[in-house]
Each structure stands twice: as structure tokens, then as C-alpha cells.
Amino acid sequence: QVQLQESGPVLVQPxxxxxxxxxxxxxxxTTHLNYWSWIRQPPGKGLExxxxxxxxxxxxxxxxxxxxxxxxxxxxxxQFTLRLTLARPEDTAVYYCARSxxxxxxxxSWGNGTLVTVSS
Length: 120
Known about the structure:
Layout: E1 3-7, E2 11-12, E3 18-25, E4 35-41, E5 48-54, E6 59-61, E7 69-74, E8 79-84, E9 93-100, E10 107-110, E11 114-118
Parallel strand pairs: 2-11
Antiparallel strand pairs: 1-3, 3-8, 4-5, 4-9, 5-6, 7-8, 9-10, 9-11
């Protein structure tokens, strides 16, 4: 069973870059058709899909954060990374990484999530 674990700073200053890493255990980033996503949930609000990286290394970003988001991977460490530039207080959220087995299927494996606060 695939397990995912988020890691990174819990406090980020405004205008700095928010960077999180997801470590995949029990699976491979390059497994055919797998997609690896980042999702966040601000306090009191719903889930927002941030973006993903596919099994072939192609990244995808959601429309709301596209200009500030980049997703990359390190296949030697089985990790993928989210970078969100110019962090704002409204980026404060619980950030999750997750997997979908195919591009058209639901996210079926999730990390526990990590709360990141953007504040000075």
C-alpha cells in the first residue's frame, strides 16, 4: 500500500517561498499512469487542488495558483516537491500530498497533511 508523508517548514514569512516535500513509501513516482498531487485546505474552507506531477514527470498546476506554483520530483529519493512563491497570509492551510492511480481516477492515497502558516 502506498503511503505518503509531507515535510517542510511550518512557518513561512510573507513574500518568501513555501516549499514542501512529499516522500512516497511503498510505491514509485514513475509507476505507469500514476499522478501525484498537492492539495490544500485553508482554515474553515474546502479542499483546493494545487497541482500535480505525472508518472512521466510532466507537471500540472491548478488555475488559481498557476503563476506562483511549481512542482518537481527527485525519483532517486522517491520525493516530489511543491514550491509556492510570494507566500501570502491567505496561503495558510493544511497541505496534503496524494496519489491517483490514473489521471481520471480519484485520489486514493493521502498523506496526513501538514499545517503551514504564513505570517511574520
